[in-house]
Amino acid sequence: MNWAPRVKPIKIRQLYRYARLGIYDDLLLHDVGWELYARCSDIATVADVFREGHVPCPKCSTKIKRRIDPLFSTGEGGTHENWFRCTHCAKRLLWRDCRQALRDTPRCFDCRAVLHKEVVLRCACGKTWSQEAYNQSVRTRVLLPCPHCFDLVRRPNPPPRNQTVSAQKSSPTLHCPKCQAVALHQHGNIECTACGYKRRWRDYRKSLKKKDEKLECPNCRYTFRWQEWRRSTRSLRTGNPRPARDFIKRWRKCRTPQQRMIQIDTLLQTLHGRGPLAPLFIDSGEHNIRQMLDDLAS
Questions:
Q1: Fewer CB within 10 A of the terminal residue: the chain, N end or C end?
Q2: How far is Cα 73 from Cα 36, in angstroms, rounded to an integer?
């Protein structure tokens, strides 16, 4: 399918530059707004596929139901990662920023000096780690250096339940992969009551994701492969499509340039609060996008 491209950051910066001067460029608002709208529509479409199992035809957009039951969830997902500020330099961070900084440039957890990469990771203070042990420490430690000032910061507590949207798992009818009889999900396994087939539930779910199938549109007779379509949606997949759905709902109701600017700003501020979402909408690297959103919010 021809998915809508991500929005260029230069257009967003220009839009805000004009807005600060009290100028609402209707043409620029129209371009940015409808580009975001098209991107949001694609994100919502892809989210619906993974929730409901109806794949849009790449040619005519007719919904085609998959034959393989992928065990869809009706939840909208959500981010379990909160922004927090370093207690030393007051920089705004995500916990994964601290981890990624150490993966890019390994540092000693005690003296925070850059480690020398030899056969092992070695610090001037005498400590050494194997690469595997260091990676494990980065994943499990609750105190890591801030990527800006390198002082230790503590991993923030998870957000309260009312700030996250829990996935509501569906309970579809299961069919045995061997005999197609009704199967049961029990004791962490999928078990067939007819032929005795039994497999770990986790492995069964993984196998469903890897299965391919040929889909044919009943309207235009176009045929395509599910895995090929799935690969084309990598830049559109998210477990939290709600900001995109909200923008789609509100954008069409805008009648004035001011209303359009408010909706664009609302979406961007929502993306700012959910760091991992922004690269789905804006065409740039994650670091540059975050810097731009920080600048726009200041």
A1: C
A2: 26
231: number of Cβ within 10 Å = 9
Q: What is the DSSP string of 5-22?
A: PPBPHHHHHHHHHHHHTT
pLDDT per residue as tens digits for the range 193-214:
889 889 898 888 877 777 788 8
The three-state DSSP-derived secondary structure of 161-181 is HHHCCCCCECCCCEECCCCCC
Instruction: Catalogue the long-range contacts made by 60-64 (C-beta closer than 8 Å, 24 or more residues apart).
Output: 60/217, 60/219, 60/220, 60/222, 62/217, 62/218, 62/219, 62/220, 64/215, 64/216, 64/217, 64/218
Question: How far is residue 12's CA from residue 29's CA, in Å, rounded to a whole number?
Answer: 9
CA distance 262 to 4: 22
Q: Are 229 and 55 in contact (CB under 8 A)?
A: yes
Helices (H), the chain: 9-20, 26-52, 95-104, 131-140, 201-210, 226-231, 242-251, 257-273, 286-297
Contact in structure between 199 and 38 (CB atoms under 8 Å): no
d(CA 291, CA 185): 46
Predicted TM-score (pTM) of the model is: 0.64
Dump pLDDT digits (tens) for 78-136: 445 577 889 999 888 888 888 888 988 899 998 999 999 888 899 989 899 998 899 89
Helix axes 95-104, 131-140, angle to 10 degrees: 170
Distance CA 223, CA 20 (A): 50
Summarised one tens digit per residue, pLDDT across range 273-297 is 666 678 888 888 878 888 888 888 7
Domain ranges of the chain: 9-78+167-175+211-297, 84-154
- Check: CB of residue 201 under 8 Å from CB of residue 98: no
3-class DSSP state of 116: strand
